[in-house]
Amino acid sequence: MLKNAFILIVTISFLISCSTKKEKVDLIVHNGIIYSVDSAFTVYEAMAIKGGKIMELNSNKEILEKFEANEINDLKGKSVFPGFIDAHCHFLGYGLGLQQVNLVGTRSFNEVVERTVAFSNNLPADGPEITAANGKTGWLIGRGWDQNDWESKQYPTKKVLDSLFPNRPVFLTRIDGHAALANEVALKLAGISNATKISGGEILKNGNKLTGVLIDNAVDLVKTFIPKNNKEKIEHALLSAQDNCLAMGLTTVDDAGLMKQDIDVIDELQKLKKLKMRVYAMLSDSTPNYNYYLKNGPYKTECLNVCAFKFYADGALGSRGACLLHDYDDKQNWKGFLLSEQKHFEEKAKEVLAKGFQMNTHCIGDSAYKIILGAYKKAGAKKEDRWRIEHAQVVDPVEMKNSDGIIPSVQPTHATSDMYWAEERLGNKRVKYAYAYKELLTVCGLVALGTDFPVEDISPFKTFFAAVARQDNKGFPKDGFQKENALSREETLKGMTIWAAYSNFEEKEKGSLEKGKFADFVILDTDIMKCKITDVLKTEVLFTYINGEKVFEYKRSK
Question: Which of 17, 298, 456, 460 would you call most buried, defined as having the most Cβ atoms within 10 angstroms of its Cβ?
């Protein structure tokens, strides 16, 4: 009898111990405010992760009682968000720009010249920037000037560059990439003369003399002659860009315009586990890309998604290359221009749709928007095809009403950068239809948010602040720029996460923190959903995780 009782007690004890045994996972984060951004916008306290995926989200008690892990991160009340997705940027271009003259924020052309000279003086004596493959002096490349930030607001000329660099080609691109200043050596190498004609662009002159300023397609006349970046330089650029992006909590970047050879390097680095960043790559509108991808179809891995072609309908508003329905307010008899014939967009729309690709088109002006929206509808694109219009800066009210079915991919910091001069270009009536993000959201049901870096800063916190406050980082204007088109904090967060993922056909694997999705998340020192809105700009990223792996940790400077 006693023996049977003893066996019963041992058996019960064994069963209890088995029932309370914890499940082993790789990582537990707990004691936090975890914004899942699921359909109910649920907020949790803790999360368990295994094999790069989310196992469960729940209360601290439930997670800690159910799971055990070698790595446990006590958040001490800090906030957690899905990894931020930049829905429109130039990731590779930004990395390459880190190796060039940085002209962002220059307040005069004199400062542009000073930075260019200083950069040239600091180049290594035997580097590729000094000597090109043909033994001649290499190119001096820079990017980031904006004449709208200067007192004169006039385009520069090449005169000073010609005197300082009489034997070296110099090519300095405007902040938006839609204009550039080239010196005489660069123009001669490209064969540009007073008689050169270009469709979809401008070669500016002063009388019969070239000023060196090139607009839109004219920029490519010179870019074609700049030596191509080798694989080593591309790798260095990608990894340098990654370091800065991870520090900002970015876990996916939508690179707006890449060639196959660049994508191949990205794929290789990702497979070697050197490039942790997930990349949604838009293919450039280029024959080599069509020859390969229209034959082979979209390409997808866990880290890389190649399913879209990127087109440019027009140029930029700042350089007056945006294609408008009516004249620019500050330049009569000038409406801007398309960068390709309307027929090109209509033909390619049908072609890429037939092969299962998205079409994502850069549209700044209201005329470009109307033409591209028409091309999409003519091709037979449906809502489920998720075709995007990138920027959607100026949208005619009639076309706005017809926009259901497309995804606006917009950049809130463009509104706060351009507000200083946008009314000069558009006039006080038409500017009301520009940067209308709330209205686009109402019509289309979602907006994907990005920065267009390096045109703007890479910071997603500046995106968040600009979308909600409609101010720049100096707090101007006091009451916000056209505040009726501000987004709520919840809408903005969705635009940087789940809606951006949806625009990439990736909402089932990322964009929210839910069971079975990638463990891509960011831990912040500030709760951007509740803090004073200006404190968003002070936010620091404490940790960035991709696939459950800590890829960035904030180190306080001593």
Answer: 460
